[in-house]
Amino acid sequence: MHIRSLKIFCDVVQRRSFSRAADDNNISQSSCSHVVQALEERLGVQLLDRSKRPFELTPEGQRYYDGCRQIVKRYFELEEEVRTLHDVEARSLVVASIYSVGLHHMSAFMQRFSAEHPRASVRLEYLHPARVCEVVEGGDADLGIVSYPKETDALSVIAWRNEPLVIVCHPGHRLARETSVHLKAVAGESFVAFEEGLAIREALDRALVRAHAEVNVTLEFDNIETMKRAIEIDAGVSILPEPSVRREIALGSLAKVAIADNDLVRPLGILHRRDRRLSELAVQFVGLLKTHGDFAADAVPSSAFQLDEATT
User: Distance between CA atoms of 204 and 264, rounded to whole angstroms?
Assistant: First the structure.
């Protein structure tokens, strides 16, 4: 079985189109269709349900695709390793990060790392926490940066840093006059919360219950950027990682208040596949993160952090 046939099949599935997959592989559409038919004949099963528009994978096709995707990816990774065996700098690295870390830390790290490894192909992707785990487990990213990381049968965690959580409010809010308060000070306040189901929401809910600080959740979001915009228009207060609000604090659009009676932190960790040895490039990137854990987001120009608001 030629690896090219497996790649063509994977491209057909990913692109949901024979014509687009054919273009990707510089072959005719009929040749592309013949490759998939040949695979089906060899296996004695139908991989695609062509009676539906667009076509859908059969159960056998889904299983075959999942396996082929890993085989094809690993094959091209192996080719790259052999081709660059004596040139680590020429290899590639894909890092997936949750939005808040990506916006306020990872962009600065990526700039620094790329400057130190100019021939390496380094890519940063911003994803929802669940998607970060999925792409690392699926082999589509070498490393994943998440908060409240958990090890699984497939994923291992490298502890990175703990970010202090602070109360964040509008500069005109009554709490903005304080340097630090007890967590109970937010009781009864309109509260801009993280979306239910996120690990940080569960951690904060537990802390508020322990402090007997019942809040009025008025808005819920799945990312810090939108939460900050809501707080800036005085829609409520919130509890956020301190590094993620440094720029707004410096600009005066938000105010922060330390929590006097609670050592609340947001732990950040680095995910990687348990069954794969980290590449030398990945090891060096992890080393940069570990060595410069407090490398501030404002260490690089603000243009480095520009991202379409719709993606956050």
Answer: 8
CATH number, domain containing residue 276: 3.40.190.10
What DSSP element (H or E) covers 287? helix 280-291
Whether 238 and 278 share a structural domain: no
Other beta carbons less than 10 A from residue 64's beta carbon: 21
Q: Which CATH number belongs to the domain containing residue 223 in this structure?
A: 3.40.190.290
**Reported confidence tier of residue 258, pLDDT bands at 50, 70, 90:** very high
Give the closest residue to 186 by CA, choosing from 196, 197, 173: 173
pTM attached to this predicted model:
0.66
Distance linking the first and last C-alpha atoms of the chain: 42
Alpha carbons 195 and 173: distance in angstroms, whole number: 23
User: Are 147 and 266 spatial neighbours (Cβ–Cβ below 8 Å)?
Assistant: yes
| Strand, coil or helix: 163 | strand
Sequence-distant (≥ 6) Cβ neighbours of residue 149 within 8 angstroms? 157, 159, 267, 268, 269, 270, 271
Q: 181 is written with which tokens? A: 């308060």
Question: What percentage of the chain has pLDDT greater than the value 90?
Answer: 57
Nearest alpha-carbon partner for 93 in 267, 288, 244, 294: 288
